């Protein structure tokens, strides 16, 4: 298939501090909300992860060798401020200088995220994003990062996937504080995350640095399983809470009356109330004019049918196909579409959903400027055989999704890059280590890296940028 990717297209891969670095007790790092929870749960040990804290020179050299020209990294807030606020940690500051310098030296442009699921524990214990005070602590952390690294990092991401954070924390309950089905808390925290984003965008622009700033949303298309009106409404409502609410805040700088009315309806059906302060809307409106780009994380799409019962969720964290359930009170229920393949973790593989989402952003939010697909990839139970992994299904997955992006570009959408999740196998928050995504296989016992078949394929693609 002929691909239409611009010559300056970024073909990169993504990582996140907590999932890649390890070294949790080194460099005077403070704790995040994951540490105590995972220790207590006792199933997965995140303390070494992919040892990126020590291995990054090697990983970045491999990134370069395999043709990547971009990488997403995140700065662990708890390395810069071990207590989340107060004293700054020089060892943390120095580490990210070295990491960023190494990215630049390898010609792998760093896209740097400030919050990737890793609020420092003391601020988490004070209510995390539900506590408005924490928004100001986040701004203070961002300010230090901009002042330290702003002259060399040209692409900044405020927050990674507000919806996944709050869904994990307050609805699915597989992220601390492990609350189930509290949709009002989830919506309130999501709104606060957008206010925090807006504050950080304003700050960045006021510093007159020469780079760009944006946010990353998880944006997965939602389709009714039938043409039945109630199923259509279910798809509309799941899209509303997971996608439209965030897109309106990002690009319109407020919530469209219809968006707000329906969000309030869902929140009220779940016995809550969404509080929006007057100053929030001023901040959102101002940031909507200042955003330089949006990062779209896309793995799957969902098919919905009407649902009248109480919320009911079962997370498939083991890769046992067919074990997930996801039904939200006042919204709808995800169902299997027999025509669409799924991964072992029940994520429907539907590249058309990516094309549809990219085109929809252009149509509904014409001020979007630039899009990057900041995460896409396939969790797979890779097997290392004779020093490599035959991950043909992953190659097909990437191929199809790059094709979907190319189709959107042909339809006039400005997409400037693609980041595969992930550069090397990393720690998966709720699935541990057997759900692998990397171009590089990691033997977690020895920390040795083995390029998979997909890495060689990716290199060839990067060399030509044209053919799949
Ligand atoms: C995204 C997160 C990543 C990563 C990825 C894969 O939502 O931004 O941090 O974890 O999903 O998810 P999982 O590890 O649950 O398969």
Task: Describe what this molecule looks like in 3D.
By secondary structure, the protein is an alpha/beta fold. Helices cover 42% and strands 16% of the residues. Helix 10 (229-252) crosses helix 12. The N and C termini lie close together (5 Å). 6-O-phosphono-beta-D-galactopyranose binds next to loops.
Rg over alpha carbons: 21 Å
Number of domains: 1
Beta percentage is: 15-25%
Topology order in helix (H) and strand (E) letters = EHHHEHHEHHEHHEEHHHEEEEEHEHEEEH
What is the third-level CATH name, the topology?
TIM Barrel
The main β sheet shows up as: 8 strands, parallel, barrel
Structural class: alpha/beta
Number of helices: 15
Q: Which CATH architecture would you pick?
A: Alpha-Beta Barrel
Features of the shown structure:
468 residues; alpha/beta; TIM Barrel; 8-stranded parallel β-barrel; 5-stranded mixed beta sheet; 15 helices; 15 strands; 42% helix; globular; binds 6-O-phosphono-beta-D-galactopyranose
